Amino acid sequence: MSPDTLNISNTDRVLNITAKVKDKNSGVNYLAVELAAKNGGAEIYTTLSLVSGNANNGTWKGKIVIPQGSAAGTWFINYLSINDKAGNNQFYSTAEFAQLGFENTIEVIYK
Q1: Distance CA 1, CA 21 (A)
Q2: Residues near 104 by Cβ (< 8 Å), separated by ≥ 6?
Q3: Could you tell me where the beta strands, DSSP code E, fall in 1-111?
Q4: Within 13 Å, how many C-alpha atoms sit on residue 67's CB side?
Q5: Predicted confidence (pLDDT) per residue in 40-81, tens digit
Q6: Is 63 exposed, middle or buried (0-12, 13-18, 19+ CB in 10 A)?
C-alpha cells in the first residue's frame, strides 16, 4: 500500500494497493480488499484489476479513496478476498494478513 500516511485535512486522498498473486491452476478471477478505521465506524471496499501478467501469475492494482473528514488514526486491511476462476475463495482476515508478513496499516492524519 502506498503512501503509508495520508493527510486528508484539505482534500480526499488516494491509497494505491498492489498485489502480486499466483494461482497455478484455474487462475485468479478477482481480488477484493476492505480497509477499516481502527477506531471503528468507517470501512471502504474496492476490487483490484489485473494490470500485468496473467490470471495465473499477475500484478493486480486498485485504489481506495479516503474522503476528507474521515476518521484520523490507524486504518488497516480488514480483509483480503481472492477468488479463482474455478469458484474457490481464499479469505484473509486482518490477523491472517499480518501473520503472512504483509504491510497492512496506514495512518490518516489532519495537518
Answers
A1: 15
A2: 1, 76, 77, 94, 97, 98
A3: 5-7, 13-22, 28-37, 43-54, 57-66, 73-84, 89-93, 105-109
A4: 6
A5: 778 999 999 999 999 999 999 999 999 998 989 999 999 999
A6: exposed
Domain 5-109 listed as CATH 2.60.40.2550: yes
Paired sense of beta strands 43-54 and 57-66, if any: antiparallel
Work out whether strand 28-37 and strand 57-66 pair parallel, antiparallel, or are unpaired.
unpaired
Of 110, 106, 109, nearest in space to 36 by CA: 106
Q: Which amino acid is at 70?
A: S
Position 77: which residue type? I
Distances (CA, A) of 64 to 2, 60, 95: 11, 14, 21
- Count CA atoms closer than 13 A to 42's CA, side-chain side: 18
